[in-house]
Write a structure and sequence with these properties.
CATH superfamily of the largest domain: 2,3-Dihydroxybiphenyl 1,2-Dioxygenase, domain 1
CATH architecture of the largest domain: Roll
Structural class: alpha+beta
Strand order of the largest sheet: 2-3-4-1-5-8-7-6
Number of domains: 2
Number of helices: 6
Amino acid sequence: MPERDGYIPGVPCWIDAEHPDPEAVLPFYRELFGWEFENAMPADAGGVYYMARIRGRDVAAIRSVPDGAPPTAVWNTYVAVADADEAADAVRDAGGVVQVAPFDVMEAGRMAIVADPEGAAFCVWQAKGSFGAAVVNEHGALNFNGLATRDPQRAEAFYGAVFGWKILPLDSGPMWILPGYGDHLEAKSPGLREGMEQMGAPAGFVDVVAAINPIAADDTDTPAHWSVTFGVDDAAATASTATELGGTVVRGPYDAPWTRLAVIDDPQGARFIAGQFVAENANLDAP
């Protein structure tokens, strides 16, 4: 399903990246992913919000660092909700933190910035005029969001209370599922479930909404966080191009179940993952 027309509550729906110098990083993503940009903010606004598009449809955004926030470049994950205020209350009740209380984003929607009990920050998005990414799962578009956590069971209690997520244990690594999501996808794309079964996808995979990346017990430096993976046609070529454009390859390319991955920092340090689908890697163990 490379093109979308909406998201049900509990599904990651949008990504954006804040940068100290947004204009300076646009050429990197334009050359790497073929994105076209348009500033969606009014001329008299204090910041910028560059919508990134493929075939004229929204895929992501590059924006200014908010006033008062650290001048750090980072990619942000948004999860669709029916009501941002109720979602913020659910985050508090489940032991998380509301970092920025719900607020309206012009006519686009209503959002809040929150963090789980381990400190992994993300956003909740109540769609109005904008539902999120219209193109996904192709080169240069969002392919996966992943939670890096030291305590998957604690995370399951939190995200289960807020979104209804459960952990699907797999040999290739645990995943987040939203029970019933596969039924929604099947209704949108009849035959999807059968196609995934024929491809060899494990039972329950059709309900997957995000990945879980357990942080090693001896890794005391990595904080809990949400990551963003973009689909690419060739992970090695993407890593090479990213380096030529001023980015840094932090890890890879390396093989993982179903994929070949490269962890990349853009020229201002916003980290993302480039993921190439590799069917021959289906039975690989998680790295």
